[in-house]
Design brief:
This protein has 491 residues and is α/β, with parallel strands linked by helices. The chain is 25% helix and 17% strand. It binds calcium ion.
């Protein structure tokens, strides 16, 4: 059969690659996700260009950086008149659908466009009995969000027009905060202790002040609903739990006392990570059902299947939850692809691919011309085992959302194959969503070969003066090449 491939794009929200067994997870197993990696290619260096939900989704759809598509923070919604790859595939004859999380805005200017069918959660969406908006019609759908997204995806596949290729974007809410599992997974991991990450007790020394200033610490910054305990202050359930040794009462349980702040921190990590992994388990099962469908329908060979997430996440790494930083755990996206007609089973690629490359890659496979104003590059040659000699060896990153929910300071930087240079310009720049006040800018430099966990910035070390100069020039070159501007105080 000689026609454009089907594309099944499964994306979850905040699923870090170090919670997938095909990426060597120390903390869980994901047998169905592993089926994609085993049957295709695993990318070990897929990076987002801004580690936060809404901006990453806009970059994926448009193939452009956030200063170009205008979606820089959680409060800058996407203009649905922008060019996106689903629109181009639809125009080329694909049947297109989007099911699940959208998070690019609501209303006539922001609802999905370019899809023959769409049904989405408004905003973040709820785990249980979520509200959904199906082609502008609001309804409450009984059930568990992850199962609903899988069911609705399967339903759309079953009723599709078999004479044309399809694009199905299946977007899970899970495993985003507040990490509410399905009851069938509620007791998983109950009798085990999940291993702690190497950097669990990071003290944020030897880095710019931004790391210590961030408010995403396991030991201090959860609210009651994050870890399913009774609110210490029932009048203010969103108040943070705070550090220390104060007893915590699991919902429906007895108070738990702690002998030390560290014992309490470890207990909070277990509460958090177990629910996170339970949410992942439902996704894994859902992906298994989709893969079974492709097999049963006889279209597995003709379908490109992708599993990814909109960014990475801190799973207790650096003592944190959440994302946003350019540090490895939140920068890296899981990205696995199965396409038996072109991709070698069980292959692994270490080249650098970015979320702005996805659109170009899908257009390439569909035989649709890639518009000049898309800013990424098709990685089809990488998938087919032939990395071009001029493939990128450095990437540009910018996190615009200064302050806001977790007091993460705005920054930009460059990552090469061996180093990372980060500039915390730390200025809200009057962008919607930014609540922080301006801080004195600072730099960080990491040697990823010697310090892969980014625990010790070597910026300012005279031995690195030449390297720092080279990387700073590279950063500004990359920034200019994508059309972004350097930070200038008072602009
Ligand atoms: Ca996300």
């Amino acid at each position: 059969m000689n026609r454009a491939p089907n594309i099944l794009f499964v994306m979850s929200d905040d699923h870090a690659s170090h919670a997938m067994s095909c990426y060597g997870s120390r903390i869980n197993r994901t047998p169905h996700l592993d089926r994609i990696a085993d049957g295709g290619m695993r990318f070990d260096n897929c990076f987002c260009t801004n580690s936060i939900c809404t901006p990453s989704r806009a970059a994926i759809l448009t193939g452009t950086y956030n200063h170009v598509n205008g979606v820089t923070t959680l409060d800058t919604m996407m203009d649905n008149r922008l060019q996106t790859f689903p629109k181009l595939l639809q125009a080329a004859g694909y049947q297109t659908a989007h099911v699940g999380k959208w998070h690019l805005g609501q209303g006539p200017a922001h609802w999905p466009t370019g899809f023959d069918y769409w049904t989405v959660f408004p905003g973040q969406g709820r785990y249980h009995n979520p509200e959904m908006v199906e082609m502008t019609e609001h309804k409450v759908v009984p059930g568990y969000a992850t199962d609903i997204v899988t069911d609705q995806s399967l339903h759309w596949l079953e009723q599709r027009d078999r004479s044309r290729p399809f694009l199905l974007m299946c977007h899970h809410k899970a495993p985003h905060r507040p990490w509410d599992p399905h009851p069938r997974h509620a007791r998983r991991y109950e009798d085990e202790e999940i291993p702690y990450p190497e950097t669990f007790d990071d003290d944020y020394a030897h880095r710019a002040r931004a790391a210590a200033a961030a408010e995403m610490r396991i030991e201090r910054d959860f609210i009651a609903s994050d870890v399913k305990v009774d609110p210490p202050d029932p009048a203010n359930p969103r108040r943070r739990l705070g550090a220390g040794t104060a007893a915590l009462t699991p919902a429906g349980g007895e108070p738990v006392a702690f002998a030390s702040p560290h014992e309490r921190k470890r207990w909070l990590y277990q509460r958090y990570i177990k629910d996170y992994l339970r949410c992942v388990d439902a996704i894994d099962e859902g992906v298994g059902r989709l893969l079974d469908y492709l097999d049963d329908d006889g279209i597995a060979d003709d379908t490109i299947v992708i599993y990814t997430s909109d960014q990475g996440f801190f799973l207790g790494d650096h003592g944190w939850y959440d994302k946003r930083f350019m540090y490895e755990e939140s920068l890296r996206m899981p990205f696995i692809v199965r396409y038996p007609r072109a991709v070698q089973p069980g292959s692994v690629n270490g080249d650098m691919i970015l979320n702005v490359d996805f659109a170009e890659t899908f257009l390439d496979y569909a035989g649709v011309a890639i518009p000049d104003d898309m800013q990424g590059r098709s990685f089809r040659p990488l998938l087919e085992g032939a990395t071009p000699a001029d493939w990128r060896t450095a990437m540009y990153y910018r996190y615009w959302m200064h302050g806001a929910h977790h007091n993460t300071w705005a920054h930009y930087g460059v990552r090469t194959l061996t180093h990372k240079l980060i500039y915390y310009y730390a200025d809200p720049l009057a962008i919607p969503g930014n609540t922080g006040t301006r801080e004195e800018p600072e730099w960080e430099l990491f040697d990823l070969r010697r310090d892969p966990r980014e625990m010790h910035s070597v910026y300012g070390d005279p031995a690195n003066a030449a390297l720092t100069g080279d990387l700073t020039a590279l950063l500004h070159d990359l920034q200019a090449a994508v059309g972004d501007q350097p930070y200038l105080p008072g602009q």
